[in-house]
Amino acid sequence: MPRYVITEKAGRFVAGHTNTGTGTILSLTKRAADHELRLGTILPVVSAEVVVAEPSKDTELEPNTSNRRRRRPIAEERHDD
Questions:
Q1: How far, in Å, CA of 50 to CA of 23, rounded?
Q2: What is the C-alpha separation between 36 and 43, in angstroms, rounded?
Q3: Confidence (pTM)
Q4: b/e 17-56 (16+ beta carbons within 10 angstroms → b)
């Protein structure tokens, strides 16, 4: 059976298995792995050695604001001139 490595995108369960952490190797059938491969939660193991890339310096310190709502003032101040 082909082997796959769990990525940091994976949730609590991966292809019916409990996620035990990034870098864990799973042996899955091609059919069982298809959906997870599309999601990017697993990657095929190319060699016996798996290398986990370090985050780049540009993205390391940036907060993720894509899912946050923008705050709007409750009432705008009136300026009577």
A1: 8
A2: 9
A3: 0.55
A4: eeeeeeebebebeeebbeebeeeebbeeeeeeeeeeeeee
